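Magnesium transport protein CorA
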Amino acid sequence: MDSNEFFAPVRTTSDEGGGSENATVTETHGGSSDDAATEARVAKVPGALSVSGDDATTMPSSKPVQSKAPRTPVWVDLLSPTNEEIQDIEKRFGIEVPTREEMQEIELSSRLYDEDGALFMTVSVLNRAASDAPQTAVVTFILVKKTLITLRYADPVPFKTFIRRVNRSPSLASSADAVLFGLLEQIVDRLADVMEQTATDLEGLSNQVFASPEDRKSDQGHQDTLRQIGRAGNLSGKAKDSLLNLHRLGLFLSTQTRLKKDAKARLKIISRDIVSITEHANFIANKVTFLLDATLGMISLEQNNIIKIFSVAAAAFLPPTLIASIYGMNFEVMPELDWQFGYPVAIGLMVLSAVLPLWYFKRKGWL
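Tokens:
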């Protein structure tokens, strides 16, 4: 299974003050399937602690830290956890972690709820947006006391990006609320980037659809265009689903009195961004529908042109075929068969009967 990383600027449960209390710690649970022991990777900062389970052990540093109270992590990130790890988290924080099946439920009451003071928030996050098969990964945020627990079975780009940012700037994870809103902002930023790239791709597709026939390959070009339009539509649909989940999460958080003033201000900005990106996603969905209809219309026109050519050819060769059929009959009394000029006259009639319809069609503009 994949490793689980616990990022936590650790601090005492009773004192969130400065000094050595803001040391950054990274815990890694898991590893190989044969060894479920907990390994600790300690960030290179003065006074860093290795946190394993409920114990905290001071690591050697230039300035020893004297801990007055047990320390608790700010962020516990569970990536594809085992049953043992989930049981350890449930025992450690006194909560019941939702199962993977429960995370997939779409009822609002199953995704956003408050249980004994712990907030459970499940959202769908866009994953593998750059691939040909984008997906939505379900992520559960659990805000319990002063710790944020994230439960996920995929590794979307926003989480990777935020983890790198926390490694560079530990102050971004100063509190559980800061980590929660930092992750939400990263998810929204990712959705914005995806929508911008999709809009750019659709502009290129629009130029392909309405390009002159000489500038494109008919059959293969249309097949590729339809695939790209379908991918853009699939991507925008999954992005809208993620935005809807984030919007509901924002409404749920706005009703929580535990949020501080600065957290509510960040939530308001995130909500505005979500509304703005949703409007852009709606525009992209309409553009996808327009391009799909236009592409199918272009295909229909090309097919009609092909059918028209065959229809004209059939109409042009019908009179010569009729003449040839008449003189191909085996009747005894056919005066033209003994006529010296019968053969060239029949050929001339067939050519004339073919040229006249073509000239008429050309004059009418049908060719």
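The radius of gyration is 35 Å.
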